[in-house]
Amino acid sequence: MTDSSTRVEEHLRRWMASAPPGSRLPSSRALVAQLHVSPVTVQSAVGRLAALGLVESRPGAGTFLRGTGPRTASDHRWQTAALALTGGEPRGLPAALRPAAEGRIALHAAYPEPDLLPRRLLQSAWSRVGRTESALRRPPAAGLPELRSWFAQAIGGSAGTGAPSSTDVTIVPGSQSGLAATFGALVGAGRPILMESPTYWGAILAARHIGARIVAVPTGPQGPDPDQVRMAFEETGARTFYAQPAWANPTGSCWAPDRARAIMEIVRSRGAFLIEDDYARDFGIAPGPEPLAADDPDGHVVHLRSLTKSVSPSVRVAAVIARGPARARIQGACQAESMYVSAALQEVAMEVVTRPAWKTHLRHLRGELEQRRDAMVQAVHQHIPEARLETIPTGGLHLWLQLPELGDMPDFIAACEARGVVVAGGDEWFPAEPAGSHLRLSYSGPQPEEHQEAVRRIGEVLRECLEAQG
Fold first, then answer.
1. pLDDT in tens, 364-405
2. Four-way CATH pick for 3-65: 3.30.1540.10, 1.10.1060.10, 1.20.1250.20, 1.10.10.10
3. In the chain, which end has fewer C-beta atoms inside a 10 angstrom radius, N or C?
4. pLDDT score recorded for residue 53
5. What sign has the CA pseudo-torsion 41, 45, 50, 55?
């Protein structure tokens, strides 16, 4: 696909995001005049959208935006705020961590399959680090200075606009450890913390572990409504908001720039912290938003970024970036839990991400994720037309489907596994009661050649369950 075709497709996607289903797309002549491209380029972009099931051509009438799902897939997110729902009890081992039996197609994976990782870079890094003194020495408690500097520079921004420095960075053994330490330092037992709903199950687990009171804020394709965020702060007195503004897990959504600005204004006015979990920074298919921490001179944003998913699950290295007194408190909490992160692991991470081949790997990864995402989107439109796919993510690792209301989600998941497909039901991504029946499907897992067949089986199971419940 050419750059011009990509530009036309992105223009149409933005137009489609605010247009109701059934709307007629701008004519080819209008797009040619507006975007200064050829008719062939427009046809290529529209054809790609049609192949994904997003638009349909009607001879003699034009091209129209397809509906995103049946009316039976209701939207109950508003009840999250209306009922002031708060978190309940843990629900056992998360689906994303459950092993898949041999012969099953795994669409529940939490981590990219090995073929999506920088295998050669990693093997070379282990070999080099194994010949150094790293395995024999203790690193500085806050982390190796070179790695701390890399994480600070990776955020972007400029020193004059409030970008962080290396002294603001604490290296931790994975983002889950960083979340637990940050929640413990900034929230504490019995105190409220705002969370998007749905959101990352690991954050829910970490907050429950310290006894925090989770306050769910409904979110959507553009992020949470700033008015809902303001209301949650006012009604609960919370001073902390955990969020994933870029390619959120599980929804894949990105905060719209105007919403991000409005929410940051609310956070500042409340004298609060926003914990920005930037887990998917290395998995952008299209350019993503700049991290909120890139322009935060007063230290309201606590930024988390991990290399565990993008480098290797065995390299559990992440960073918590905070400024002011909060940094010292978080560092103390991190060191009380783990003292320091292995110098060898830190050096391996540095060896991988500072090599020129790392950027080459990320470019290849973007193309591979795009192909896998598009294939799975097409399969969902073809085989599960009952599902509502509200967001086609421009980054991340998953699709988030809303299904028609199912009476027993565990039975549906078990039926899928009996057909040879392991899926992750959506309930555990909700900090409180789920707003409907959902599935998270990973397009980054193994056996991508089997994903279409897996989606077909899921569609069959869904229709059988709906028929059985009448």
1. 999 999 999 999 999 999 999 999 998 999 999 999 999 999
2. 1.10.10.10
3. C
4. 74
5. negative
